[in-house]
Amino acid sequence: MIPLRIKVDTDAVESYVVRLRSLEGFANEHARHELNSFEAALDAAGPDGADYLGEGGSIRIHGIDPSEVDGDVLLVNPRRGVADRLIRRSSPHNTFLVTERCDQLCVMCSQPPKEHHVDMFPHFEAAALLAPQDATIGISGGEPTLFKDQLLEFLQRVMAERSDLRFHILTNGQHFDERDLVAMQSLDRGRIVWGIPLYSRDPAIHDEIVGKQGAQERLLRNLAILCRAGAQIELRTVLMEPNARGLPELARFITTTLPFVQTWAIMQMENIGYGRKNWKTLFYDSSAGFDVVARALDLVRSRGIDAQLYNFPLCTVPEAYRPLAPSTISDWKRAFMDECDGCDLRSQCGGFFEWHPRNHGYSGLGAI
Length: 368
Ligand code: SF4
Hints:
TIM Barrel; 12 helices; binds iron/sulfur cluster
């Protein structure tokens, strides 16, 4: 697995953001002039680690080759002697985790909420401004809109400075209201996609899945507000035993009531967090029961709504629907199984989450 956290030594006291550069060496004056105040250049590398120097001081990184972190943006925590790779230059999967707090308690949550919260927006802002040209940055949680005012201000400032950046924000959609319209409309809405889950047309099933009474009613009201704000919405539905058979009904509802969504993403489950705890009762084997997915896809697509399958191994999807199943699992948590050896589709397939169980999953799986 690609490491997102690396061991470091630094002479700093407070946490800070830095971009690593493998220039010709800090001793090289020309190279030094290329650095901005948030950068550090490779000075020397050896068996004891790689040393970087910059205006902010020195940092030694351990356990990773400098070529793998060239251009990466790190959040360095001197107290704990670690650095989080907030932005990996070569990855399209960079996400800022705004908070671990959440007001829902979804049965398949991959990252169960915690009460503890530290405001990281100043670090995220510094990191975003150092992101590679034309990057898309993910924002997630917990529930990021529990800190909605800070989030909208962060977006306003960063997007004003960096007209090339785009954002993909995962939110449960519970916390918008009419007063947000002005702030939302002042953002460049073409550069933000809001990923929002809706699990069922049936309010009782949706509310049961997210562990919050009245959640669907509130969500539908807020989707209308987002529509008025001109927001781009990617509706997300994790496929599970409790909602799978209602998928065609949900598709009909989307075509009649939510036709303004840009994309409907039907997603396979992740076996981690509560998803692991409840896997045996929740996992829906779509390789054996793709009929409900197919009917739902056909319905929304016949009305001109884009539909996608996220986290579906390609061999579990009938051939006609494979173009709708891009590789979506982030590179650092993607894995393949023994069954994938020699598969012709491997280069296009997104594979599995690293933690997908080997002994309980898809019944129809195998090299093509
Ligand atoms: S066998 Fe593996 S690589 Fe091939 S389509 Fe299935 S999951 Fe993907």
